[in-house]
Amino acid sequence: MRKFIFNGAVISAIIGLWTTIQTTKNGPRDWRVPLIWISAALSVVIAVGTVLQESREADEREIGH
Prior knowledge:
The structure is a single chain. The chain has helices at about 1-5, 10-25, 30-65. By secondary structure, it is mostly helical. It has one domain (about 1-60). Helix 2 (about 10-25) runs antiparallel to helix 3 (about 30-65). The longest helix is centred in the last third of the chain and has 33 residues, at about 30-65. It is elongated and about 55 Å long.
């Protein structure tokens, strides 16, 4: 869990998600809102996927040595 909390990509994605929530609450409702949510969701998925991949690679290096 710690690897997710302290990862810069995950922190950035969560801040982006917070910005998306604020934009949705306070901004106009038009065609851009779904695109903003898709973008925020993809950012979170990519950040988590990157952390998982880095973790697997670190485990493989540890086993190899």
